[in-house]
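Handoff note, outgoing to incoming analyst
You'll be picking up this chain. Sequence as last confirmed:
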Amino acid sequence: MTNALLALQVIPGRVLRISLPDGQVHTLLHDAGAAPDGIVVDSGTAYWTTMGAPLVDPGTPGEAGQDFSRRNGGVHALNLDGGPRRDVVPTGAMTTGKQLTGDGAGTLYWGDREGHRISRVRVDGSGLTHLIVNPAEDGIMGECVGVAVDPARGHLYWTQKGPAKGGRGRIFRAGLEIPAGETAENRSDIEVLWHDLPEPIDLHLDGDWLYWTDRGAAPAGNTLNRAPVPAPGAAGQAPEILADGFAEAIGLAIDSGAGIAYVSDLGGHIRAVPLPDGPAAGQEPREIAALQHPLTGLCLVPGEP
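Most recent structure output, in case you need it:
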């Protein structure tokens, strides 16, 4: 169980700390870089991705007018007990950093949306490796967003959201290692577990359950979902919707000990959703914080009393 969350405010880019007992919000870092998106804590250090600064078409409102195809994303770090921000993957070494996760053993994994790939690196910046690389001609259908890893079973999971509100989102699985003799561009072990989802975004693996946010169209979109992890070679079961009505659901963190899922959205809200089989089962979802700016990535702060 934990008493705090870290959340990313995308504009202006900040790292926020949210106290769960009272909902108080403290700015941990005022300059997190351009459009931060995914965050994780590993051994007392916060790591996060940035999407980079987009090219903006003033004649097209909202996200549709933002072009993130320039290669100016990165992965960054900040010790929670103080010290300066530093780069793990310097700005410009990747295209659009999305959800970030870790394996608990010093390796970070993330989705690179316009880069059409899933990548990993050691927390010291060494060993940058691309695990999945989709063809550029796949366009928006090849964009990778959410990521989760299962080191015990050697699996990598990721989302490809497809067009906005398009109902063509997918969730995939492959091995954490590229099969011998193959490449990130041409792997034989990729499984499509779910397809035709509204617009899946961030993932979280907890035991034998896979959870994800979806920012697609209602009623199945703007939801928190879960489903059992499929057996090798099997398709995923129809997802169970745990909560709906989000304002563009993005970030996701699961506190399995407390039986709570936390979801952030672009409306600036963070909600706590009791899990059906946890100690908080039967309680209603509640709002933890309501801010004036869009929120993206979300993670627990481990080890706090």
